[in-house]
Amino acid sequence: MGSITDNYNQTVNQYLENIDSRTIEYAVDTVIEFVRYANREPKGLLDFHNGSKQPKEENYKYDVFEKAHAALSLDKWDRSKIGSGEICKYASDAIAFTDNLVNRHFAVPDFLNRLKDPDKQKRDKCEQALYEIYLGDDEEKAFNDAISCFGAKYPIIAFLFFIKDRDRFLPTSPDTFDSIFNSMGLSFKMSAKCGWNNYCEFIAIIKCAQDMLSKSGVCRHTVSLLDAHSAIWIMNYEEFKSWRKTIDDINIPMRPKNTIYKPDGTSDYVCARCNYQFIQTSRCPECGQLMKE
Ligand SMILES: [Zn+2]
Predict the structure, then answer these.
(1) Which of 99, 98, 77 is nearest to 88 (CA)?
(2) Hey, is 269 helix, strand or coil?
(3) Domain count, the chain
(4) Looking at the structure, do residues 189 and 53 belong to the same domain, yes or no?
(5) Are residues 126 and 39 in the same domain?
């Protein structure tokens, strides 16, 4: 007999096998480089978990998970509660803790309105869908049922899954991730594509980043799926984007990595971009980087 997680594992692994891992590795390396730069931490181990070594706090997501998951009070759920109104009540309690993971001006009020629909049949359908997400045995079907109740609202549905299990599911913001993936050089898109397979592909990308971050050995902690999500999310920071522009532009002068003084009174530069060693000039002859004198 299969387990509830089989569909998830198969689908995510299938995407993982075909993923462009070199592109993801390059993105992860760039984020690591940025975090080192932003924290003036050129060598030591980094912490993507407690946020202390990040430009901004990303660790609030753990807090969101704890509070929202606890508010669901899943130990009090059973099938007989479907139609009682209690399940809708627990879900609205949990959604109070989204922080900025879900838009609180539009998406959250819309979700809450659906839980309070005057039509009892619709409310019962919501309770059924919520029950299937947390305690049902078919997560793909639960995802589809959630779409039919709450609309193809990716941030809400992803959040509902995220607060079920933060080691398997993630919150998302489709527009932002589209722009992040585009800047990474991945063609994967999430906007207007809310669906189980798209969600599993998204998770596979973050899982690949998790593996890369883990393998890099730069973290002082075990890298969770959520830590990898935070790391990739850094690519959306304005500070990251402007830093990246400067490292990508060879016309912005860069200090040589090293200056080697020779006995004849001349000196060599070692290029900080490509490590090429050359007689002191204004540009690296290898990569064209302009040197800061
Ligand atoms: Zn160079």
Answers:
(1) 77
(2) strand
(3) 2
(4) yes
(5) yes
For residue 208, report the distance from its CA to the centre of ligand 1, in Å: 30
pTM of structure = 0.85
Distance 259 CA to ligand 1 centre (A): 14
pLDDT tens-digit series, residues 198-233: 999 999 999 999 999 999 998 888 999 999 999 999
183 Cα–ligand 1 center, Å: 24
Size (the chain), residues? 293
Cα of 291 to ligand 1 centre, how many Å? 9
CA distances from 59 to 49, 56, 202, 217, 246 (A): 6, 9, 20, 20, 27
> What's the 252 CA to ligand 1 centre distance in angstroms?
13
Of residues 123, 110, 54, 47, the one with CA closest to residue 84: 123
Q: How far is the CA of 289 from the centre of ligand 1 (A)?
A: 5
Q: What gap in Å lies between CA 105 and CA 182, rounded to an integer?
A: 27
Regarding whether 84 and 102 lie in a shared domain, the answer is: yes
Q: Is residue 227 part of a domain?
A: yes
